[in-house]
Write a structure and sequence with these properties.
Blueprint lengths: L8 E2 L1 H15 L3 E5 L9 H6 L4 E3 L4 H13 L3 E7 H6 L2 H10 L5 E5 L17 H5 L6 E3 L4 H13 L4 E5 L4 E2 L14 E4 L4 E5 L3 H13 L5 E5 L2 E3 L3 H10 L3 E8 L4 H10 L9 E6 L8 H7 L4 H12 L3
Parallel strand pairs: 2-3, 2-4, 4-5, 5-7, 6-7, 10-11, 10-13, 13-14
Antiparallel strand pairs: 1-8, 6-12, 9-11
Helix pairs in contact: 1-7, 3-5, 8-12
Length: about 325
């Protein structure tokens, strides 16, 4: 049996870098702004091609977001790039006031989010970002699950810029979509059909959910897999359809469950007339993540295909 995670894998940051250079060739309004992260944001090629269109503010994330908002107000399309924990944690007030509240069309590119910087420890884990940003009205949150969706997200935002938080993964992941799979704002994508249980993954969680679905199929359990490419706006219609058509829901995210995908799903289900149509469980980070490799941390929090499959069988009461 070949699972998704046994297929060839790719670095979404490479797809981001290549696509940004291509888009900039035809649109002089596209700029990159970074916080002394030219290398880690994969902007070396962009800098070499368009040195006058890369603005490096140094290690000053609050200034970086403010500069991006100012450029957007002047008609430019700024892609503001920085490591996830510092872009969100240090500049949260500027994201709130200068981008979301002011509705400046800045694309906030969160590089190496989740626990990709594993060995650098809790200061470098970006696991609270969904919880911080999801309450901000007017800020989209897009989370490409593979290189194809990364390209589609950039193409969409270059053509129709909006205040958006774009999560770009660091470690390599397999393709979970075809290049021609539609990328629609605020829509989940059905990655696999099923009618017993629904597994909803976001970002790196999608390939984990697909492997779990394959494992469940070996037990005679049919699992639907939804790719939650957008956390905001949130696709309540697809969620509620899954809740009606399957018997349980499991969410999978490389982020803190307190305010991320699982919280969004639970909030929608709990507010339905008569309560939730089906039981659910959240798989993700709880508390601070310790120091260790990314793979170790995923296992530490049970963010693995085996854990997802186990939780699904428990919800379905399958021995």
């Amino acid at each position: 049996m070949t699972t998704i995670t046994q297929l060839p894998t790719y670095d979404n940051r490479m797809a981001f870098a290549d696509t940004l250079i291509e888009l900039a060739a035809s649109n002089p309004k596209i700029l990159a702004v970074c916080n002394d992260s030219v290398g880690s944001s994969n902007l070396v090629g962009f800098r070499d091609r368009y040195p006058e269109r890369l603005i490096n503010v140094g290690i000053a994330e609050q200034d970086m977001v403010g500069v991006g908002a100012g450029l957007a107000s002047s008609g430019f399309i700024p892609f503001v790039c920085g490591a996830g924990p510092f872009l969100t944690g240090r500049a949260l007030e500027q994201i709130k006031a200068d981008v979301a509240y002011s509705q400046h069309k800045v694309v906030l590119c969160s590089m190496s989010p989740g626990m990709a910087y594993g060995e650098l420890g809790p200061t470098h884990h970006s696991i609270e970002d969904y919880s911080w940003l999801r309450p901000l009205g007017g800020l989209d949150i897009a989370v490409p699950a593979d290189r194809h969706q990364t390209r589609q997200a950039l193409e969409s935002l270059a053509g129709d810029p909006r205040p958006t938080y774009l999560r770009i993964g660091r470690y390599k992941v397999p393709d979970v979509t075809d290049p021609d799979t539609a990328w629609e704002r605020g829509r989940m994508i059905t990655a696999r059909e099923g009618d017993d249980v629904t597994l909803i993954g976001i970002g790196t969680g999608v390939s984990i959910a697909l492997d779990a679905a394959e494992a469940l199929a070996g037990q005679g359990i049919s699992a639907r897999v939804l790719n939650a490419a957008w956390l905001a706006p949130f696709d309540e219609a697809s969620l509620l359809r899954a809740a009606r058509e399957t018997r349980a829901i499991v969410t999978v995210e490389e982020a803190h469950v307190a305010g991320g995908l699982g919280a969004a799903v639970a909030s929608v289900l709990a507010q339905q007339p008569g309560g939730s149509p089906c039981p659910m469980r959240m798989i993700g980070v709880t508390g601070f993540a310790p120091t260790g490799s990314t793979s170790m941390l995923l296992e530490y929090f049970g963010i693995t295909a085996a854990d997802v499959a186990r939780v699904a069988t428990e919800l379905l009461d399958v021995p």
